[in-house]
Amino acid sequence: MTVGELDAGRLRGALAGEGLDLETGPFVTRIRSTLDSVRRGLQTLYADFPAAEGSGFADFHVRVAASGGVRRWFRPQARFFVDGRSIFKPLARHQAFPMLEWGLNWCVAGYAHHYVMFHAAVVAKRGRAALLAAPPGAGKSTLCAALVSRGWRLLSDETALLDPETGLVHGMARPVSLKNESIDAVRAFAPDAFISPPCRDTVKGAVAHMRPPADSVARMREPARPAWLIFPRFEPGAATRLSFRDKGSAFMRLVTQSFNYAALGRTAFERTADLLERSRTYDFVYSRLDDAVETLGRIEPPAR
Amino acid sequence: MDSDGPGDERGAWVLSGAAVVRRVGSATLAYHEKSGDTHLLGDAAAAVMSRLVRLDPPCDEYRGLLRGAASALGAAPDDIDADVAEALEQLCALDLVLRERR
To answer: Could you tell me how many CB contacts below 8 A there are between chain A and chain B?
Structure first.
């Protein structure tokens, strides 16, 4: 069963009752909420994802709830709970769905230490993965959205999960988070993509989410072998530039984008080195999405 | 591992694999388990390191290599402490000196 196959009443009932077990790649999250904006977000953006009415094993147990007391009526707020603990400051209630998305990111970054995790978007083509590693605001989600709307498979717009046993990268194929100007840029570039109405006045500005391509969701359990490590940077008006970066500095830069490099110690060092050995490493500057997609579509993978 | 004293113990710890050295492309990286730090080594330091990690715990050749590296980089031999536990940090410092000169 998928989320989209549940009608609104049944989905509402699951979220308000035992919870909805949502499968995203290697994780199952049990979600509970009585907020309509959360239900709508799940129904539209996660329509193709497998789900069950909370009964099996779940990796994460989360709840998005309305704040109590006077905050039910005056400047209403929402709170995010993991295992019954509130982990973020309350946010304005209209931000409940983005809060769920940020909370799911938090769960993965905080608990999934059986992977070496990097703050990177991951897209794949013919089984070979490109990691787009960059700090927030560099344009990696925008580039990721553009690539997956032109045939690349979405693994993640946020977190690369490197399996230390296999060297393969796993993803979750969750919705792509777009911010501010990138929302209209992706709308113009991919007019057929479903993008949620922007949620304004968040700490990140206006935030909207792009529904992942159905094919990416159908293949979300399929890992990919890393082939390219790219450090993208959006620069207004710049010509598209793809240039080799030496592997030593690429390594040092990538580890600054890891959530758990220090926690995993030598394992992370060795596996990151393996990833670098097998990948081609680039800096990539872009401003026009069509040029960017065309350029990245031409890069060849290294020999296996 | 047996050791004759604190200095030897630390040195053995560094040389017995606690400092992991890897070549990636043309770069040499060292992971220092004690601190959890990763260092990107330059050519000179990498050449010395690649030899050091093949040596037995503290020995004259080890100390000689450190002093030779210091000399090659224009540092006074006394700038290199013979305490092998600090070898990796010293090499990284030398690497920085080398980069500045370039």
So the answer is: 47
